[in-house]
Write a structure and sequence with these properties.
By secondary structure, this protein is mainly beta. 1% of the residues lie in helices and 47% in strands. It starts with 20 loop residues before the first strand and ends with a strand.
Length: 844
Amino acid sequence: MVRRVSRYRASLRQQAEEGPSCMVTDLNYVEIPQPGGREERVFTLPDGTQLVLQRVNIRITGTVTVLLETGTTDSTDFTICESYYLCAPTGTDIEVRAAEAGCRICTVSTSEEGTEVTITIDLCQDVQSVASVVVDLEAGFCNPRQQEVERTCLPPVRPRQCPAVFGEEETDPEPETFPTLQSSCVEIQPQQEENLCIRTNSVYDWIRSRVDAEFTVLFPPVFCLYTVTDTEGDCGGIVVGDTICYPCETPCPQTLQCSNGVCSLLLELTDDGCVTCPPEAVTLPAGFACEVPGLSCIYVVTEADGDCGDLVVGDLICLPCEAACEDILQCSNGDCTLTLSLTDETCTVCPLDAVPLPAGFACEVPVLSCVYEVTEVEGDCAEIVVGDVLCFPCEEPCEEVLQCTNGVCTLVLNRTEETCVFCPPNAVTLPEGFFCGVPSCVYAVGLIEGDCGGLEEGDLICFPCEEPCAETLICGSQTCSLTLNRTSEECVPCPVDAVPLPAGITCSIQAGRIYNVNQQTFYDLIAVAVADANDGDTLIVTPGTYTQTAALTIDKPLTIRGFSAGSTLVDFPAPFTAETAVFLQADAITLENLSFTRTFSDVAPDETLIRIPAQGVGDYYSGIVIRDSNLTGGERTLIVNVDDFTLENNTITHTGDEQSLEIRGALGTTTISGNSFIGGATSLAAIRFQPNTPTDEFSGTFLVDDNTMERHSQFVFFENSAFTNVSIFVRRNTINHLDRAGSSIIFYPFNFPGIDTILIEENNITNPNTQRLAVYVDYRDGGTTAPTAGQIQVVRNTLAVALPWGRAFDTVSPDAPVGFTTIGIPFGMSLTAFDLVDNTIIPI
């Protein structure tokens, strides 16, 4: 008789916090021997056939382990005896394998004796009778027969077959893991003329059976075990160090506070889990109520200012625990100010001798501050007086002196401590609207050339205060040149966004002088500075008035820049009768932030403030820029022949009786943008494109954008006889003729085929003078061409022109103040030349 043992292990299927759980382990099956061998019994099948089966007795043993919600575990061994009838004649062995094993909690009951848990064990096993036989390799799979029982087991899983014997067609749906074979096998020499047989187990009979059994596990009573760590009051013999058992909770609270009204106890947990109560434990008397105390930040009073009642230095105060307790707190109720220092870095249980913080106190973390005393008060400063203490965010070392202002009040503050300290309780709050800083002369970086250590134009730089602050500073080093413009004549607080001047750069006051940035040399006269400059140099004209008695010629590619047009004046005073005040006679000249002024003498026929002459036939100076400047005086303010010319953001004040800007030849891109044209009682056009000689040429793009005009008879005048491949854009200009009667945008019709594009868009035109037009084609001085249909595009303009529009000899659109002289009709001119789109018409 051979015993076959099968061991089965399982794991808990539930977590303890979800309820009590159990598991079955160490499962064993042993056949119980019978005196005289297995008992035989004859069974009659339904068809009358008689069958002899043998009785097999099996003893099942194992262990069931229970886990309670408290975390407590206990185990009990169990034994189950079962009998089965199988075809198991003498010579066969019995093999039992567990197909399924589990358990479930039926009941849990608690009493003084402990916790009783009733468990039901569910087993399902395969029972086979087998014998060792010699078999053919072509073996078949043996299926078990069914045993007629009330509950059935899960369908059997076909055993894995050995590929070496049965081939590869059988596949285990859940492959098992086998030990790794050795890397080298023992070589086997085949034997010739020998028949090989295989011995294996033959299954005589096979049944699957389910077993249910019920067992009980008894847990003795358990407690949370505590040690008394603090007592207060009359505690009836209970002292620090006593052990107290408290009914088990899971998990046991780390700390308990118990009281009966006359005694307070503080208990600390001594064991993490529930345990049996030791014999030396004392009994907590009836009437005690226990609770889990909240964790607190514990502070000691280190300072007490004012009327603080019974609170004194040394008192312990508990405050609700936060993630991290603050090192120091200041608490106040208006009459009393307390300074509290932390006694323990972590949140702990409040000691029994702590005193409560009375109602009405508010606590905050004191901030390290630079502390100042008010030493001077000027203006309307409300309630701030000399001697007040003010606190500012800490910056070490604290500035020695601060100046604060809100526009009506100025304060001077002197520090009380060089290092950062806690703001004193008696400090006052600076009202909103005050700006504080070190008293300084504040400058803005204007021009910047070279490597200046990261400084950029517009950066603010502060210098020690000297009243009044110098208007201009010139600063430089071997690699850097700067010009600085003051932002205020008086000392003011240094702005918080001011940047330091890099090391190695020194500054000096050079008002009324010209500075060559590239050569780092100073000049008193612009003409001398120009003569001494190299091509490409930058000249800085510091604030002041530069009087010129002779014409100024700039004949090199230079940048000449003032600090601002309002502070840097180049003046040609009367009597100045030269035809031209300033000649620009080189490529790549830039004038910016300057004022040029001359009087109108009407002595020379072509009197002008600035002239850019032609170099030769169709040869004009290129890349000249005039920007951010004031240009005043002359019969014409500017007369130019130019290639790629830019005139932008200037104020052009016309005092003569001709045009402000007369363009006698233009190639490339001509940009007239952002300028303000201010006319007078005799001013004609603000801008006039008109050849002066038969050799003057016009081609390219004319951009007349974003300008304003006041008091001129015309805004822009195009005499197109010399135009070739010209595109005209007049956009977003604001035009007001005031008392100067005339049409706003005028074309002389000599060569409309020379114009590719005419776009007049989004302009705002105001003309209170009757019989005038916003756009006008004038044939009175001749002209034999007409624009094609829609060539003059008038789009999205606002046109406020006085009625009636046009004169008796004009043909005028009824929809907008546009038209032409009737003399143009023989040349094919008609109102279809105007493409009117989405204009706003305001008759006045």
